[in-house]
Amino acid sequence: MPPSQPSNSSFPAINGARYAAITGWGKCLPPAVLSNADLATFIDTDDDWITSRTGMKERRVAHVQCTDMAHIAALRALAAAGRTAQDLDLIIFGSCTGDTVVPTCASRVQDLLGAKGIASLDLNTACTSGLYALSVASSMIKTGSAKRVLVIGAEKPSALMDWTNRNVAVLFGDGAAALIVEGSEQEQGLMAESLGCYAEARDSLAVHNYGTAYTNMCPTSITSWDFDGQDIFKRAVKGMVKASHDVLNKLNLGVEDIDTLVPHQANSRIIDAVGKKLGVPADKVFVNVERYGNMSAATVMIALCEAIEEGKVKPGANILLPAFGAGLTWNSHFIRWGERVEPLGYSDAELPACKKTALEIIAPRLEAQRKHAQSEQASSDKTDNQQQNKNNKPVEELA
Ligand code: UT7
Q1: What's the CATH number for 19-338+353-362?
Q2: Which of 100, 173, 201, 303, by CA, is between 20 and 30 Å from 311?
Q3: Contact residues for 108 (Cβ-Cβ < 8 A; gap 6+)
Q4: Atom 30 (ligand 1): residue with closest C-alpha?
């Protein structure tokens, strides 16, 4: 016998809103700039290689915690929406490089904002976390579980970077962005999304010595990265194009209906490939990868904020946001923007002043990683020598 279902009249109906509008937006970039020339001072790379292979010129390095950047971005987004923290009922913190796992990062932002007693949660799908957080927020608003949500995409990859590895050290930067999402009866906000993950390729991007699998094995300053750039590149293009076609099909729209494409900013060549495969003209594609590199979960959200600031999002615009990240997760979000493209207000909140250069901020971590690499090399040389000695001995002495 199937379990009996509650009758329709057993529970009061909880009505959600028809749409989940984005009413506020804000970003926070730490001031310390790490240029290609700075990177070339400590790893074997140069501006020419980085620019031609990635489009990146510089990236930011945070002198504060990830949640500090998120807090400032949140205050700016709230001001843009004409709201205060007391108007929120949920915070979603999207990140894979938050300051702590226990307690949650969302709870720190909540505490800093003084938003007492509301719900908050962390969400990690790596670089796509901010957009997956937007999906969760919009869905909860539509089911009536939440009314007004602060969605954050914030990252501090500098804190788990292997600064001795040129394959990854040049690619990432720190930053944060926030959106205010609230119920609306106007046709706007996230209209549909396509989400997925190539889990069979999860080892293409892995950070070792970060997570409970490594507990007690190694100090976490000594991370090492598995990074198959070409595999990620190919799957990123495939996943973002597939997701974009899926979401357009869901909405019965065509590529010509896209006003602005704001893709994940991991590599200008990936952005070009996605734009070309979709058939979106280059003048509709927003690019800021040269300024910040790949800021993981913060990337698309900061790009969206800058597209609005630069007048590239018009009232009622159709915006497509494809992204990908470790996992390998992928997505494409279709947003119908509202009528307002100007913030209702501005916050004067700022990060504390930074007295160090980017090179000075990363120096202790780089030094620890170099020492670790030297000691690993020394012990490997010792093992090789012992093996060599053994090999030089007559076989009867080894028996
Ligand atoms: O959000 C997810 C994050 N992941 C990504 O965004 C990764 C996507 N992949 C990529 O963006 C590209 O694959 C990379 C930018 C990572 C690499 O570009 P590529 O054109 O695929 O280069 P490659 O891997 O084929 O490397 C070519 C050469 C190699 O040298 P050899 O073996 O040909 O002698 C690398 O060792 O370039 C070398 N190389 C560098 N040289 C100077 C790798 N990194 C650097 C560097 N500076 N920083």
Answers
A1: 3.40.47.10
A2: 173
A3: 67, 71, 99, 100
A4: 167
